[in-house]
Each structure stands twice: as C-alpha cells, then as structure tokens.
Amino acid sequence: MKRAMDGGSELHAGSGSGELVALLEAVSRGDRQAFASLYDRTSAKLYGICLRLLGSEAEAQDVLQDVYVIVWEKAGRFDPSKAGAITWLAVLARNRAIDRLRRRSVGTDAIEAAAHIEDESPSAFDIVEQADNAARLGRCLEQLEERSRSMIRSAFLDGASYPELAEREGVPLGTMKSWIRRGLQRLRGCLER
Amino acid sequence: MIDEPDPPSAPADLAAEYALGVLTGDELRRARDLAQTDAQFRADVARWSGRLAPILDEAEPVAAPSGAWANIQNRIGPTEDGGNVVQLRRSVNQWRGIAAAMSALAACLAIVLVTGIPRTTTRAPVPVVQPAAAPLVAMLGDRQQQMKVVASWDPAARQLVLAVAGDMKSDPAHSHELWVIPADGKPRSLGTMGSGKQMHMRLADTLAKLLQQGATIAISVEPPGGSPTGAPTGPVVASGSLSEA
Lengths: 193, 245
Known about the structure:
The structure holds two protein chains of two kinds.
Chain A: H1 2-5, H2 17-28, H3 32-54, H4 57-74, H5 85-106, H6 110-118, H7 133-142, H8 146-158, H9 162-169, H10 173-191
Chain B: H1 11-20, H2 25-37, H3 39-52, H4 68-76, H5 83-115, E1 136-141, E2 147-154, E3 159-164, E4 175-181, E5 188-193, E6 198-202, H6 205-208, E7 216-222, E8 236-241, E9 243-244
Antiparallel strand pairs in B: 1-2, 1-9, 2-3, 3-6, 4-5, 4-7, 7-8
Helix pairs in contact in B: 1-3, 2-3
C-alpha cells in the first residue's frame, strides 16, 4: 500500500485530472478527438489493471476494448462531483475484468457472455469517492491485521474470489468469509471516522 | 475441505463483498439482483468502490496493444458527419498539395543545380533528365490519422525534406528523432529534429539506400539529443511509408 499512501497517488487529484474530466465531458457529447486523447492518456493505466487481473494479454485487450466502447457510450454517466475521472475509469475497467474472470471460472458460453454485456448492472457506473481517499484508505488498511489487509488487497487487485482465497490459505470457505467480512467492517469503521 | 455453516451476508456486508469482487455463485447472483432493484444497496456498492479504488494504484501501467485502438474505433462506428474519414481525406488532399508543391520546388532546385541560374538572355533551360530513381513521399500521421509531417525524399540529391504541420508538442526535456525502417524491420536513426517547421537533411550513402519505396519513416520521442541506445526507446508519435509522389 505504500504507493497508494503517497501524496502523489495516480488515481487522485494530481496533474491533469481536470483535463480528464473535460475530456470525458466532451466524449459524452460525441467528440472523437477528445475520445482519442482520453485513450492516449488513460489506456496504459487501464490495460495495466486488466492485465494484472486477467493475466492474459488477449483477454486483457478484449476487456480494454469493451471498456472504451462502454466509455464512448456511457461517458455521460460520469459525475465529476462524485468521483475523479481516472478513478471512475479504473474501477470500470477493474469491474469488467472481474466480470470476465468470474465468467471464465463458470465456463459460461460465448452467447451468454455476450448477453451479459447488454445486461450491464446499473451500479457499474456509480462510484463515490471521498476527498483524501487514498491517504485515508492507506491509513485504515494499516490498522487491519496483516492477513486481512493482504487478502483484501489481493481480492481487489488480483481478482481472487472467496473460494480461491480459502484454498490459497488452506482454511474453510466460511472462515475466509468471516475474516474478510470482519476486515471490511473494521475498514468501514475506520474510514467513516 | 470441511465447510462451516455459512450464514448469508447482511446487505451492508454483501455490498462491500460485491465491490471487493470476492463473491461467486448464488451470492454473486443475489448481489447483482440487489444492484438492479435496491437503491440503498447500489449506493453502498458505489461508496465501497470509491473507498477501495486507490488499491488500483498498485497496478503498473502497461502500453496497450497496438491493435486495440483500431478495434475500438471500428466498434464505435462512423460519426454522423463522416468524422475521421472525411478529416483524413481532407488532410491527405491538403498534404498531397503541399507534397506536390515541394516536389516542384525540388525540381526547380535541380534545374538550378544542373544549369546554374538561368540568364534571361540565354536559351531556354535544357529539360531536366528524369533521375533514375523517382522522388518518394511519406505522410507521417499519428494514431488518430492526423497528418503531422510530410517527408519527401529526393534520391538523386540524397536530400530528405521534412515539413511539419501544426504542433509536434515539443518540450525541452525531449527530442524528436527520425527513423527509417526498411524491409528488414530494423530502425536506423536519421537524426533528431529541430524545432523548425521545415528541415532539410542530406543523407550518407549507407542511409540513403535504405529509403526505398515501402520503407517506413517514423518519429519517436527520445531523451534530449536522441536515443541513447541507437534504437527507438520512446513512443512513436508519427509514422508513414514512402511511396512515389
């Protein structure tokens, strides 16, 4: 968590965040030039996230393409009063990558997978950030036990599911669930303080 | 593995678990249903997504595969006004005009070189003999197909002329370096570019013979003074291939 705690955290404030907001707003009006600039500035970050979660270049590229098509169509759903532009994009990419991971493990066929794209959960575009988010999260994660901290991190960043985490740690599924739930509850308590 | 009894999560926990992404199977389906129907649940998920987002800072950026952008553009389809295609055609036409003008300029220059400055009293200049190799032109565009630079190559004079359109977004911390990539695929440096709008360079024989029809001319961003390794190290900002003018 060291980097997320640094003041210069990439997902927060910093240089160019206003520009990204302006680009997203232009994209929502169908401005292709703005869309190309947005892609130039954000695709490496988003591809890095997809690649980290999926591990396969081909799948990461697929998801990346989906994400930008969604951004082109749904940029109007971005609300700069609720979250930063790069946070919104990063979480969107991350959620798409998680969806892909979960479909992979179920072995859903392509037709059902395609149907799922249409059936986008309305929550997928809603992200609410507080001011000082990164510093706050860093501080609160530090207060958790090492075990909870590393599992929450691994779930969010590497896409590990409950069954995978349980197997990795060699504990029953129920034990893993209560560890994580407890960790998340403590995290919320700290974050809302 | 022996499982313990597993009570379903309270909705507040479920929202956090859903945002974290750990759910599978029935629980995942239950969370997706709630996200469709329950505004409070949706708001909780949104808050958790924002809370956890800084963890994504740890994912290192990786340059996206080069084909991704073209696929995205294909999928979003053409704009109502013809968008890119019209714009591209317009800039190609514009640049054809400029390239033609530059070829004409080069031809005049050749006449001057061959015959000396024509005096009004002497006979009309002898028609220039067509050089063995025809001049080549490359229109260097960026990823958005915006024309940036026209390179015209006069093999007879071993002279490369570059004309820069618009801004190349230069800054003192970087240089633009020009490359030729012949059929063997190995980029060779043609030197760094100044900040002027036009540039002439005479190439040594070894480089000159690489500028054949079909060879790629590219511009990359490098440390001041050019690539330290002799191969491109920074992003390519414009490229195009040589063809007959």
